[in-house]
C-alpha cells in the first residue's frame, strides 16, 4: 500500500529513510521509488545468500550508501575480502578487485554484477610481459599495482595500492638489498612514487583513462576560479597535476582528509562519484567539479547487483595454481604494517630529481 512519501509503502519509506538522507542531493524523487525498492530487495537477498557487498568508493551513491556492507579503497576492500566470514562476496567494483577477493578467499563464491567492468590499467599488461621484464632486469623485485589481472599478480613479488606504494617499494628494495625496483603497470603512479623515495623505479606505460585526462592547467583554472578551495588529486594523475594539488592520496586517504578536516570548498581530481559519496557524510563541505567518469565502474548498477544475488551470477574464478602464486604477492602486502603516515604525495613539490626508467 502506497501510504508513505514518494508513493512508497510506509514500511519501505522507513526502511530506506537513512539512505535517502545521504543520497537526496544526487537522486531525484522520480528515481527514488525504484531505487528504494531495489535497495530493500538487495538487502533481503544478502541475508538469504549469506552475502556481503564490497563496494569501491567510485560506486554511485545509491550503491555506496544503500547496499555496500564495506566501502573503501582497493586496499581496504582486499583486507575485508580476506577477513569476511560471509559465504558469498559481491564485488561492487571492477574485475581485478573481484579476482583479488577470490585469490584471498578461495573457499568463497565471488560474484561480479557485470563481467565487462574492467580497467584500462589491468588491460595494459599481461603475465607474459612481466616474464619478459624479469628477464631484462634479473634480480630486481617486481612490485605490481593491484589494478592488474591474476596472471600478472602470479608473476609478482609483492602488490601495492595507491595507499601504500611508497612503503611497499621501500620494503622491497630493502628486502632484496637493491637500489631499484620494478613498479608496474601505472606510469604516473610510478613517477609519483619515485618523487618520494630514493629507490630507483623501472616503470611500464600503463595509464588510467580517468586520471590521465587531468592536466596542470585544469588545476590552475580551478585555483583562479575558486581561490579558497583545497585541491585533492589521485596518484594515478600525471605528476604535474599532483605537484599543483594540495594533497594526493588513495580514494580512502582523500575521504579521510575531507571528513577529518572538513575544508569549506574542495575540488576532487578523480572519479565523479567520490564527491557525491563523501557529500552524504559531510553536507557542510561544498564540492566543486571537474571530475571524470570511469566507464568500467559505472557498469555496476542496483539492477545488476540484484540480478547477481538473485541468480548467483557472474562467478569469478582463478585457476588454483595461479591463485596460489598471486596470493603470496597480495598477502605480503596485506601483512605489512599499516603505513605510519598514510601515503601522501604532496612531497612531490619538494623533489627535483626523479629516477624513473620507462620500459
Ligand atoms: P584506490 O585504491 O585509491 O581506491 O584506487 C583504485 C582505482 O581504481 C583508482 O582509479
Ligand atoms: Fe581502472 Fe582508472 Fe577505472 Fe580505476 S578509475 S578502475 S584505475 S580505469
TrEMBL record:
Keywords: 4Fe-4S, Cytoplasm, Iron, Iron-sulfur, Metal-binding, Pyridine nucleotide biosynthesis, Transferase. Its EC number is 2.5.1.72. GO terms for biological process: 'de novo' NAD+ biosynthetic process from L-aspartate. InterPro entries: NadA, NadA_sf, Quinolinate_synth_type2. GO terms for molecular function: 4 iron, 4 sulfur cluster binding; metal ion binding; quinolinate synthetase A activity. It is an enzyme of class 2 (transferase). It is found in: Cytoplasm. Its main location: cytoplasm. Pathway: Cofactor biosynthesis; NAD(+) biosynthesis; quinolinate from iminoaspartate: step 1/1. The keyword Magnesium does not apply. GO terms for cellular component: cytosol. Binds 1 [4Fe-4S] cluster per subunit. Pfam families: NadA. It catalyses: iminosuccinate + dihydroxyacetone phosphate = quinolinate + phosphate + 2 H2O + H(+). Belongs to the quinolinate synthase family. Type 2 subfamily. Catalyzes the condensation of iminoaspartate with dihydroxyacetone phosphate to form quinolinate. This is Quinolinate synthase.
Amino acid at each position: 500500500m502506497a501510504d508513505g512519501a514518494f508513493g512508497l509503502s510506509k514500511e519501505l519509506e522507513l526502511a530506506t529513510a537513512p539512505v535517502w538522507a545521504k543520497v537526496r542531493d544526487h537522486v531525484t524523487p522520480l528515481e527514488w521509488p525504484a531505487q528504494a525498492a531495489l535497495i530493500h530487495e538487495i538487502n533481503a537477498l544478502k541475508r538469504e545468500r549469506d552475502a556481503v557487498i564490497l563496494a569501491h568508493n567510485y560506486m554511485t551513491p545509491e550503491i555506496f550508501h544503500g547496499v555496500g556492507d564495506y566501502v573503501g579503497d582497493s586496499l581496504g576492500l582486499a583486507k575485508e575480502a580476506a577477513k569476511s566470514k560471509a559465504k558469498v562476496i559481491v564485488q561492487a567494483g571492477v574485475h581485478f578487485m573481484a579476482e583479488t577477493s577470490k585469490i584471498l578467499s578461495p573457499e568463497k563464491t565471488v560474484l561480479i554484477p557485470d563481467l565487462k567492468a574492467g580497467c584500462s590499467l589491468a588491460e595494459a599488461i599481461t603475465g607474459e610481459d612481466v616474464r619478459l621484464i624479469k628477464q631484462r632486469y634479473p634480480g630486481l623485485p617486481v612490485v605490481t599495482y593491484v589494478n592488474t589481472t591474476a596472471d600478472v599478480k602470479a608473476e609478482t613479488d609483492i602488490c601495492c595500492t595507491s595507499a601504500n606504494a611508497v612503503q611497499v617499494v621501500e620494503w622491497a628494495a630493502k628486502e632484496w638489498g637493491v637500489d631499484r625496483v620494478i613498479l608496474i603497470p601505472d606510469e604516473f603512479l610510478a613517477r609519483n612514487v619515485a618523487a618520494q623515495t630514493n629507490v630507483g623505479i623501472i616503470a611500464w606505460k600503463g595509464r588510467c583513462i580517468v586520471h590521465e585526462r587531468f592536466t596542470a592547467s585544469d588545476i590552475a583554472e580551478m585555483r583562479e576560479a575558486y581561490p579558497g578551495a583545497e585541491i585533492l588529486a589521485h596518484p594515478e594523475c600525471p605528476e604535474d597535476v599532483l605537484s599543483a594539488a594540495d594533497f594526493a592520496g588513495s580514494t580512502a586517504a582523500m575521504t579521510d582528509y575531507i571528513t577529518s578536516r572538513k575544508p569549506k570548498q574542495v575540488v576532487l581530481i578523480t572519479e565523479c562519484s567520490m564527491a557525491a559519496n563523501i557529500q552524504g557524510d559531510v553536507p557542510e563541505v561544498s564540492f566543486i567539479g571537474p571530475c571524470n567518469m570511469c566507464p568500467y565502474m559505472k557498469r555496476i548498477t542496483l539492477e545488476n547487483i540484484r540480478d547477481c544475488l538473485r541468480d548467483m551470477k557472474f562467478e569469478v574464478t582463478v585457476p588454483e595454481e595461479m591463485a596460489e602464486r598471486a596470493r603470496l604477492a597480495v598477502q605480503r602486502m596485506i601483512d605489512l604494517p599499516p603505513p605510519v603516515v598514510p601515503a601522501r604525495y604532496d612531497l612531490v613539490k619538494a623533489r627535483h630529481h626523479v629516477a624513473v626508467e620507462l620500459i
